[in-house]
Write a structure and sequence with these properties.
Blueprint lengths: L2 H12 L17 H34 L3 H28 L4 H29 L1 H22 L15 H48 L3 H111 L5 H22 L1
Length: about 350
């Protein structure tokens, strides 16, 4: 069954349909009466599945709010009841599939439809049913990890896998025993090491005594070498002191130069910032002055326009009279001349329209 067929089947259950939930193509290839018989054979399973829908929704909704022991028992009961739909469907499938291959395919199609719907709900209910078993297993695994981590440092090899099954008192005694064995082992190793260290020390002391006797003849020479070394050290220390003093003075001089440079850069940045602010203020002043000049010019033009208004009206009136006079006085016969006069009149009309704006 594909996803579309399954979706149609579930939609049919939600709408309360009991047959024809999904079209099985193989039914079209067999005798209509046999197709009807197959469909009717699965109607009881569909009815059974439909009857469990409300119970299934109630349990899944309760599980979303919180799984309790009561909810797991309800889930188990409903899962077992719903599984009967699948079981009955399997019985019908085996009975009906004694016919021809196409009939068997049609039956398989319906069975897959029912089985898929039932198994999904069975699995969902099984998760709810096994909630506490899963929870207990997780607790056991966590306890095993904690005890394994506590034990690992005191033993060699793999940690036992059944630590979680030990009662607390048994686990405590078991861990104490392992710790005791570990500490005894460490103590024994330390004792062996102590004895070996004592032997090595005694051997070193003897070797040192022999070396001291062999070096006794070289004492005078060594003494002179030490005196020379002390004199060289004094000379080196004096040279180092002079070098350190020179480096200190050079460092002070570099610091003073650096301070002077920083101060100079600070003054230069302040001067740049001052100039920038002055330039911005000057730009704002010039902008304000320019706006004032433009505003004065605009007002002057408005005043001039108001003064020209009567003159423009008179000019427009004179042109209108001339326009009317030309239209009535110059009636021409030639089409070419008529066009010329029409162009003159259109031009006058455009001028009058412009004056009237």
């Amino acid at each position: 069954m594909n996803k579309e067929q399954r979706a149609m089947m579930l939609k049919g259950l939600d709408e309360g349909k009991t047959s024809g939930l999904v079209e099985v193509p193989e039914l079209k290839e067999i005798e209509p009466s046999k197709a009807t018989e197959i469909e009717n054979a699965y109607v009881p399973m569909v009815e059974m599945l439909k009857s469990f829908e409300s119970q299934h929704k109630v349990i899944t909704d309760l599980a979303k709010e919180g799984i309790t022991k009561e909810v797991t028992l309800k889930a188990e009961t409903l899962r077992k009841a719903i599984s009967q739909v699948r079981i009955q469907g399997e019985k019908v499938r085996k009975s009906q599939k004694k016919t021809v291959l196409l009939t068997g395919r049609a039956i398989d199609g319906y069975h897959a439809m029912i089985e898929l719907a039932v198994i999904e709900k069975e699995n969902e209910l099984k998760v709810i049913e096994k909630h506490f078993e899963i929870k207990i297993k997780k607790m056991k695994d966590a306890l095993q990890d904690i005890r394994a981590e506590a034990l690992a440092k005191y033993i060699e090899g793999d940690v036992p896998t059944d630590l979680h099954a030990m009662p607390c008192d048994v686990w405590g005694a078991y861990l104490d025993t392992k710790i005791k064995h570990y500490e005894d082992k460490i103590a024994a190793e330390l004792e062996v090491k102590r004895l070996e260290d004592e032997r090595v020390l005694a051997e070193k002391i003897e070797n040192e005594r022999i070396r001291f006797e062999n070096e006794a003849l070289k004492v005078a020479h060594k003494k002179r070498e030490l005196e020379i070394a002390r004199e060289q050290k004094i000379l080196t220390d004096n040279l180092n002191a002079e070098r350190i003093e020179m480096e200190r003075k050079a460092s002070i001089e570099r610091e003073l130069l650096n301070k002077e440079r920083v101060e100079k850069e600070k003054i230069e940045r302040a001067e740049i910032e001052r100039r920038k602010i002055a330039e911005e203020k000057l730009a704002l002043i010039k902008e304000a002055e320019q706006r004032a000049i433009e505003e004065a010019k605009r007002k002057e033009q408005e005043d001039l326009c108001r003064g020209d208004s009567d003159k423009l009206i008179g000019l427009s009136s004179d042109l209108l009279k001339m326009y009317e006079s030309i239209k009535t006085k110059y009636v021409l016969k030639s089409d070419v001349n008529k066009v010329k006069v029409s162009i003159v009149l259109d031009g006058m009309a455009s001028i009058m329209n412009e004056l009237g704006r």
